[in-house]
C-alpha cells in the first residue's frame, strides 16, 4: 500500500479512511479560486497592468512594496521596459500603483491557489484518505499548477525587452493551461462525488464540444492580446461589410489567423456560433439521457455568452462587460464539463 492511494483489495479499515466527498469539496474550492484568478487576469490584461512587475520572485514577491523607497525601486524597474518608454512615459507613481495592484493581486492569487492545492493534498496523502487511482491524477494537477506559474512568467518576459505588450500567443497558452487545470479539477471532483468514487470516461461528444470551445477561447485570448476587440465595434457587420475587404492582409495566409487583429476578431465573432451548435448538441444529448438541469444550464450560459460577446463589441470593450464575458466563458466551460460528466454517468461507454 502506498501513501497516496488505497490498495485494490481494500479492507474495511482502509475504506473508512477514504474521504472522496471531502476531497471533492476541496477541489471545488480550488476551482472557485481559479475562476477568480482568471477573472482578475482578464482585468489585468484589460487595464494593461501585466507588465508592471518586471521580476519573477515566487517566494519573496509575495510581499508587496511597503516603503516609499521600495515603491520607487519597482517604478524604476518598470521605467526601463518598452511599454513605459513608448506608451506610458510620464506616468506618475500613483498611476503606477494602480496597475501594479492588479498584477500583484493576480500573482498573489496564483500563490494562494498553489498553497490551497498543495497543503490539503499533503494532508489527505498523510491521512491515506485518497481513493484508489486518484493519487497520480492529483499529483499531475499539482505539477500542472507549477508549470502554469512558469508559463505566466514566460508570458510576461515576452514584453520586457522589445515588445510593448506580452505575446498574444503566450497569453493564449497561459489562459488555456489555466482552463485545462480548471476543467480537470472540476471533472475529478465530479468523479469523486460519484457512487464509489467511480472514474468516468469523457464521452466523445463532450470531447468534441470542449475542443470547439477551447478553439474559441484561444481566439478570445488572441483578441485580448492583440487588442483586436477595438478594431470594429459594430455587429453583425464589421463596418459596412461582413469582412472589410480593404483590411491589410498578412503573408503567408495562415499568419492572419494568429497575428491579424481584424481576421482574429472575425473568426472569434463567427466561431461563437460553432460553439453554439456544439452546445446545443451536447445539451440535447444529456437531456435525452435524463440530465435536464445540465441541459438547461448549458443553454442558458451559451446564450448569455454570445450576447455578452456582442455587447463587448458594441460598448467598445467596456471593462465591466468584457470582464463579465471572460467570467461567463469559464462558467460555460464548467457547464460543458458538468454536462459531459452527467452524460458519462447516465450513458457509460
TrEMBL record:
Function summary: Catalyzes the conversion of heme O to heme A by two successive hydroxylations of the methyl group at C8. The first hydroxylation forms heme I, the second hydroxylation results in an unstable dihydroxymethyl group, which spontaneously dehydrates, resulting in the formyl group of heme A.
Family: Belongs to the COX15/CtaA family. Type 2 subfamily.
Pathway of action: Porphyrin-containing compound metabolism; heme A biosynthesis; heme A from heme O: step 1/1
Membrane-spanning residues: 21-43, 108-126, 138-156, 171-190, 202-226, 266-284, 296-317, 323-345
InterPro entries: COX15/CtaA_fam (IPR003780), HemeA_Synthase_type2 (IPR023754)
Lineage of origin: Bacteria, Pseudomonadati, Pseudomonadota, Alphaproteobacteria, Sphingomonadales
Presence of keyword Lipid metabolism: no
Subunit relationships: Interacts with CtaB.
Catalysed reaction, written as an equation: Fe(II)-heme o + 2 A + H2O = Fe(II)-heme a + 2 AH2
EC assignment: 1.17.99.9
Membrane topology: Multi-pass membrane protein
Compartments it resides in: Cell membrane; Membrane
Tagged with keyword RNA-binding: no
Record protein name field: Heme A synthase
Record organism: Sphingomonas arvum
Enzyme class: oxidoreductase
